Amino acid sequence: MLWKGFLVCAALLALAECKAARSVGHEPRKFPDGFLFGTATASYQIEGAWDKDGKSPNIWDHMTHSDPCLIKDCSNGDVADDSYHLYKRDVEMMRELGIDYYRFSMSWTRLMPTSFSDYINPAGVEFYNNYINEMMKYNITPMVTLYHWDLPQKLQEMGGWTNPNIVDWYADYARTVYSLFGDRVKFWITMNEPNIVCYNGYGDTSMAPRLNLKGVAEYLCAKNLLMAHAKAWHIYDEEFRSTQGGTVSITLSSTWFEPEDKNNEDHVQAAEDSNQFDWGQYAHPIFSESGGFPPEMVKNIGAKSAAQGFARSRLPEFTEEEKAYVRGTSDYFGLNHYSSKLAYRNESAYGYHEAPSFFDDTDTVSYNLEEWKIGESDFVKVTPWGFYNILTKIRKDYNNPSVYITENGFATLGGLEDEDRITYYRSYLAAMLDAIDEGSDIKAYTAWSIMDNFEWMQGYTERFGLYEVDYSDPARPRTPRKSAFVYKEIVRTRTLDFDYEPDTTVMTIDEGH
Ligand SMILES: *[C@@H]1O[C@H](CO)[C@@H](O)[C@H](O)[C@H]1NC(C)=O
């Protein structure tokens, strides 16, 4: 089989970008001792039971019910994978794969239907206790995301993440969850992908609540969300860490932006600005020496705001005290990464984006190349060199923090013979091993996702699962794809072997799982 990464590599002009791709041959490569493997999901995408046993509506329930055909296939998460009832099958799949840990999220409105800690819903507590205990019975470590985009609708009506009171509302939720489950859960992730929450939800229409208040609301959201995250970290640190002994972190979404022409200073600055706006926005306040929003954002948004006649910068900067409060509030760097873009800035970029807006403030133009596409899917362009580059930049810019890859994966349109997903996983794992070889402290890798699920605005049209879910069947049967067998072998052998061909006739549970 020709490894398609070489085609990706050949399509690039700048040779340095091919480094990660070139170093991959057919020699099997070992993962470091102690390296962990997992898979991930999120509550709204899998649980279903949207109004069962006292759960109240979140912003995704509200949005999909108010506009039933907003989602591409006119679907919603009302039933999804029905994990609320099928959780034992979920754990059985974890055992089949032999994974070390499972990342999932809790639903705020299932646990706290009023949004506040005045009432804890016993049925919600029981569901998560069952899920966790079933995993632990088989030595699968639970990794819990507190917030994966499903804000209580009531809090949204009070301004959601633009209302600074949310720092306390979220902190109360976090404290409640730590005290309910922290005796068993030792890996906490406060927030999943803040940039998607804030940019797509508040500065655009591509995620709930679709406010589209460009150039202002996404930055208010960013600051409040970072303060809420920091408060949840401090609460754990001060009230729970000594007795529970766990870790608390944040997971950032990330696109890697590569300069279109590395020898052009403007393009290099454009790519740097794009990286800083996309993920540095949340990494810099927590992981940098100086704290606060990245200087590129402070400069660009300040200058644009002044030129546009605003009385002050649209970016709500952190005070010195707030910078100190947020800095260092993550026990490791949680990274979600899928793909890359090329970036440039020249005269034609001027006025390219609507103003004011996040993208006008970034002031760059970015795009991907058709050559990066593999298979039928348009969703995830295959650029393993970008994964290597972002891991290297994180090592260099933030003093080599421990990194947990909390999501990485590939979408198809369905089907059990998913060669393209296998190519994607292998090429990205090889790029990650290159970064590890050069000193990046990467501890764990999480495949998104264990099974197909509700892919937000794309509904059930984009499939990210190692297991296929049949949505035409009320029993929601899950069937392993070829990639599930390949991932299982990677986990079993702790080795990346490009030549391994699985026997896909029967999936079994190995001894010890
Ligand atoms: C700006 O750069 C883009 C991408 O390289 C190029 O297509 C375009 O012609 C350039 N425009 C100007 C005005 O230089």
End-to-end span in angstroms?
32 Å
Which spans of ≥5 residues are poorly predicted at pLDDT below 50? 1-23
Widest beta sheet: strand line-up: 2-3-4-5-6-7-9-10
Bound molecules: 2-acetamido-2-deoxy-beta-D-glucopyranose
Question: What's the structural domain tally?
Answer: 1
What's the arrangement of secondary structure elements?
Blueprint (H helix, E strand, L loop, with lengths): L4 H6 L8 H4 L6 E2 L5 E5 L2 H4 L12 H8 L16 H15 L3 E5 L2 H4 L10 H16 L3 E7 L5 H5 L8 H16 L5 E6 L1 H9 L14 H28 L2 E13 L5 H23 L7 H13 L12 H7 L6 E12 L13 H5 L2 E3 L16 H14 L5 E5 L11 H19 L4 E7 L18 E3 L8 E3 L1 H12 L1 E2 L17
Parallel strand pairs: 2-3, 2-10, 3-4, 4-5, 5-6, 6-7, 7-9, 9-10
Antiparallel strand pairs: 1-13, 7-8, 11-12
Helix pairs in contact: 5-7, 9-11, 10-11, 16-17, 17-18
The chain binds 2-acetamido-2-deoxy-beta-D-glucopyranose (NAG).
2-acetamido-2-deoxy-beta-D-glucopyranose binds next to loops.
Keywords summarizing the entry:
8-stranded parallel beta barrel, 513 residues, alpha/beta, TIM Barrel, single chain, two-stranded antiparallel sheet, binds 2-acetamido-2-deoxy-beta-D-glucopyranose
Fold and architecture overview:
41% of the residues lie in helices and 14% in strands. The chain is an alpha/beta fold. The protein has a single domain, classed as TIM Barrel. An eight-stranded parallel beta barrel has the order 2-3-4-5-6-7-9-10, surrounded by six helices. Strand 11 and strand 12 form a beta hairpin. Helix 5 (83-97) packs parallel to helix 7, helix 16 (384-397) runs parallel beside helix 17 and helix 17 runs parallel beside helix 18. The two termini are 32 Å apart. The structure holds 2-acetamido-2-deoxy-beta-D-glucopyranose. 2-acetamido-2-deoxy-beta-D-glucopyranose binds at residues 260, 344, 346-348.
